[in-house]
Write a structure and sequence with these properties.
417 residues; alpha/beta; 16 helices; 5 strands; elongated
């Protein structure tokens, strides 16, 4: 029976959640503080230049002035982390995914990561302050040096403790994310399995029989090493990333959709992606880049051109292993089929592609690149095209790229030079 939600409770919850926007003016205030530090930086810099030009700047003065500039910059960096990271974590998504200037830490920002980075920044600022005190030791009392050192060590200890405590929290988050990964059954499947389990009579184990083996959790491997192994095994023609894609080249394409796809959530949702556009507009680059993101997100990926997939499936059919081959491909949550439409296929090969698409329908993801829209796929696959495109496009993001060939443009430019 479906659980009926109390409208009053729901409304109150939404209202409380909306109060996060009360923090937005606070971040604008921090932006103003950032402007104050910019003014302070250039004021200190101008004073240093005047002292050096007039010949009144000693080596100690220059060192202290430079450290003061470094101090201002580090505090400004701390402000940036608080403004961007805090707003992203506690108020609203900024939506910079896929942008080439996106900070590395922003792609996986959360409250734990933000706290550790802020603590590290504070330790750095404290280090600069302490260094200033030791450089100007003749004008600093022993009492100030002592307490400056004690406070700095306290910052270091607190940052180390915070980093240590955030480790189990991040691991717990990763395990929760892994529980929602494609390896786990879909919600509908889990519900069906639970219902099936409940419908079976519960029997006690017979005397002398061993209980069911406990699940042994192996140590977590290095995620970066595993991601690199998945990228190498995917068979990409070259390593491409979204940050290197020249977004100015295509005359028209949906940048927001590509940025959203860069999160690789479509693989978990078992949805498809179709890139459509003339040759040289970057379809393969985007397909490979999304494949790399999927590998980094923990998914196995396999890349091949349409002709290579046709040969692979034909070889499996020739030895009577087509069904086994399609089942084996289920181990890869994402398959990439490149260059659909460049070569027409006969009816038998078109039937193989239909079986591939039909087998993975709502079961796993496909990325397909093609030089022609789905409505013209009958030119490539013949009568099986409508049934194939219907399954492919049902849960798919179709991204159209319009423009001249990037390769032709570069060749023309080189010839003109």
């Amino acid at each position: 029976m479906a659980k009926v939600q109390n409208p009053t409770t729901t409304t109150l919850g939404y209202a409380l959640f909306a109060t996060r926007w009360l923090q937005a003016p606070l971040y604008f205030g921090l932006v103003a503080a950032q402007g104050v530090y910019v003014y302070k930086f250039f004021k200190e810099l101008w004073t240093l230049i005047l002292m050096c030009v007039s010949g009144h700047a000693t080596e100690t003065y220059v060192m202290l002035a430079v450290l003061k500039l470094v101090d201002v910059v580090m505090i400004a960096n701390l402000l940036i982390m608080v403004i961007v990271g805090g707003y992203e974590t506690f108020v609203s998504r900024i939506g910079l995914q896929g942008h080439r200037d996106q900070p590395e830490w922003l792609s996986h920002v959360n409250s734990n990561v933000l706290k550790v980075k802020l603590a590290t920044a504070i330790v750095g600022i404290s280090s600069v302050h302490l260094l200033q005190m030791f450089v100007d030791v003749h004008h600093t009392s022993q009492h100030a040096l002592l307490w400056g050192t004690v406070i700095h060590m306290a910052f270091i200890a607190s940052a180390a403790i915070l980093a240590y405590m955030s480790g189990p929290m991040v691991a717990h988050t990763d395990r929760a994310h892994a529980d929602r990964s494609p390896a786990a059954p879909a919600p509908a499947q889990a519900q069906a399995q639970a219902h099936h389990h409940e419908s079976r009579p519960q029997t006690k184990p017979e005397p002398g029989t061993a209980p069911a083996a406990a699940v042994v959790v192996s140590p977590r491997p290095d995620p970066d090493t595993d991601a690199e192994a998945r990228i190498r095994a995917a068979g990409f023609p070259a390593r491409k990333v979204l940050e290197d894609f020249d977004q100015r080249h295509p005359r028209d394409f949906d940048r927001e959709t590509v940025a959203r796809l860069g999160k690789a959530d479509f693989v978990t949702a078992r949805h498809n992606v179709v890139f459509v556009g003339p040759p040289g507009t970057g379809k393969t680059h985007l397909a490979v880049a999304l494949g790399v993101r999927a590998c980094q997100a923990g998914h196995r990926v396999l890349f091949a051109t349409a002709a290579e997939w046709a040969a692979r499936l034909a070889d499996a059919r020739a030895v009577g292993r087509l069904a086994a081959e399609l089942t084996a491909l289920d181990d890869h949550p994402l398959l990439i089929v490149d260059e659909v439409g460049y070569t027409p296929f006969d009816a038998a090969t078109a039937g193989l592609f239909f079986q591939l698409v039909a087998h993975r329908y709502e079961r796993a993801s496909l990325i397909v690149t093609s030089d022609r829209p789905l409505g013209r796929w009958d030119e490539v696959f013949g009568p099986s095209a409508p049934a194939m495109t219907d399954r492919l496009a049902h849960h798919a993001e179709i991204v159209r790229l319009d423009g001249d060939s990037y390769r032709t443009r570069r060749a023309t430019s080189a010839w003109a030079d």
